[in-house]
Write a structure and sequence with these properties.
alpha/beta, Rossmann fold, seven-stranded mixed sheet, globular, binds S-adenosylmethionine
Length: about 190
């Protein structure tokens, strides 16, 4: 059955995600390195939006790595394509998180990163079980959430949902006051 997606991030607010200040001063690269992204990794990025985080991931994984980034909103992928047109190691697609077109063999990725996305997705338990099958042994599941929208209780619920899908929480941080960061390992 097709996933019903209610777009919670309006295109009229795209400027908040896609601006030079966020791109240049967001220290995304150092955060991603701290959270476990490294050279040569194959990374899945659901809900990539305009591609700012995708670009930072691609600079870390380098030419021997690969990033598969997708978003349900075609406008977001349009922006990401403009930004990443010269980067050969990034594949971009318009699709919904529950309908990701991954064929067998499934164990493709070393890391999956939900950057400000997981709280927007319905049926998280089902999604997380599916995504666990996309990860290599010891693969990482990285989640960042905005604290304005995801309060402590909601974050605890998300942690339980991820653990219930067969992951172990290995790091929890808050390098900026408005962002929560979680790193899980597949067990
Ligand atoms: C707050 S934005 C974050 C975008 C990007 N990760 C960033 O930090 O720049 C959330 C994104 O998730 C996407 N999204 C929400 N639900 C989705 C779903 N079910 N499948 C795929 N993408 C989804 C939205 O279209 C939006 O682009």
């Amino acid at each position: 059955m097709a996933e019903k997606v209610r777009l919670r991030f309006p295109v009229s607010m795209l400027w908040m995600l896609d601006n030079k200040f966020r791109e240049n001063y967001g220290s995304h690269k150092s955060l991603l390195l701290k959270l476990g992204i490294s050279r040569g990794m194959h990374v899945l990025e659901p809900g990539c939006g305009p591609g700012i985080i995708t670009k930072a991931i691609s600079t870390i994984v380098g030419e021997i790595g690969w990033v598969f980034a997708f978003d349900v909103n075609p406008k977001m992928i349009e922006q990401a394509k403009q930004k990443l047109s010269t980067v050969k190691t990034v594949s971009l697609a318009v699709c919904a998180a529950h309908q990701i077109p991954i064929a067998e063999p499934k164990h493709l990725f070393d890391a999956i990163i939900f950057y400000y996305v997981l709280h927007e997705i319905a049926n998280r338990e089902r999604l997380l079980l599916l995504y666990s099958s996309f990860l290599n042994k010891d693969g990482l599941l990285i989640i960042t959430e905005p604290r304005v929208e995801v309060n402590r209780d909601f974050l605890c619920t998300e942690i339980k949902q991820v653990e219930g899908a067969g992951f172990e929480l290995i790091d929890q941080s808050q390098t900026l006051p408005f962002r929560s960061e979680l790193v899980f390992r597949k067990v």
